[in-house]
Amino acid sequence: MSLLHTPYAFLICLGALLGLGIQNEAPFRVPPHYSGEAQKLADPNYGPIPGLSDHYSSYWGVERPFPGNITDPVFPTCDGPPAEDDNTWQNLLSAEWIIFEFYQQGIESFTDEDFVRIGMPNNTRQRLMEIRNNEAGHLRIFQNQISPTSIKPGPCKYNFPLRDPLSYLAFMSVLEISSMAFLTGLVQEAKSVQAQGAMAAISQTETRHEIWALTEIWKVNPFAGPADTVFPYANQILYSTHNLIIPGSCPPENPEYPYPRQLLPGLSAAPDTKSLAPGATITLDFPDKENQPEFDPDTQYYAVFFHSVLNTSVPIDTKGFPKRPITVTIPEVFETRGVIVALIADEAGAPTKESVVAGPAVILEQPVELGPKLVSGGAS
Ligand SMILES: *[C@@H]1O[C@H](CO)[C@@H](O)[C@H](O)[C@H]1NC(C)=O
Ligand SMILES: *[C@@H]1O[C@H](CO)[C@@H](O)[C@H](O)[C@H]1NC(C)=O
Ligand SMILES: *[C@@H]1O[C@H](CO)[C@@H](O)[C@H](O)[C@H]1NC(C)=O
Questions:
Q1: pTM of the model
Q2: Which CATH architecture best describes the domain 268-375?
Q3: Average pLDDT, the chain
Q4: Domain edges within the chain
């Protein structure tokens, strides 16, 4: 039993006081519509500790593993300014709730036999449980990284493509590789080197999940070439997941997700796309009818493709849009592996986040056949 268990708020604030010298112990300000149970999570020693407990690997229950079973936001326990990386960890925690819930709902929706019936290994659901447990560990790690002066966001309600086990597994592959790609961006936002190291370690775990799917589920070569894709504007990828969140379902106290955000129009390939491999010519689609891009007639726009540590820009003809659809050829020079992140910008190379006018879209290149399936299934 840890000393930190009982008067945890006081001790955490004391720690903060010793560390920073600026924070005061604050009374709990938990709104009355919450039980207050979630405040126990303010103590990083409450419950199984990631790295010390096998709960985050080998818990085999169907019920939500800790801390996924405690869904209220955790309110600040100290007064004071936020720590320098709180905002980045809050974005990451909100994104992690989406990923955790995706696995949790898959485990609740499908049986072992559902996966065996479509030709998948008989331990598929068990592996998904293990991944879910890792994601629960990420929830706990991210909660603990947010300082006691900032709120730790709770989950919203989500709408996932859970129609059948095959499209579920396809979506899983894109989710894992997208996680890897936004972590390469979030790591650039983090100010402390400790946070940068922790984010790099988390992205390795997402990669291990992806490797499992590539070798065991899709039975393809798992290597993505010498480097995975670096994409600097992480919040743009995070915002592109907003269509998974049921509007109005988030705890009202949660910080805006992601913060800051640009509310960019979403980007996709047209639903009838046959190939998303390098060299394929595709028609661009902006699926959100309420949020369409507006193109200035005197500006040259580019489709910018990020792959590995490089990016390539292709000028696009936006005249006559939306009556005339926009087409673009995915650069043939790219190796058909890993992932391509594509966006529309008003400058070649999209050198600033403000130069981006639509997107990004995460295009799965491995297995390359899954890319068009995800587009036509609306699962992106
Ligand atoms: C959450 O899960 C943990 C670990 O399985 C368990 O000890 C705890 O009682 C659960 N809490 C709630 C509120 O369900
Ligand atoms: C699961 O699959 C493995 C490998 O194909 C096989 O050796 C094992 O007997 C199977 N187990 C069950 C319970 O079917
Ligand atoms: C894309 O590549 C160009 C040329 O190497 C570089 O100047 C630019 O900063 C890159 N864009 C991003 C967003 O990294």
A1: 0.92
A2: Sandwich (2.60)
A3: 92
A4: 47-71+85-244, 268-375
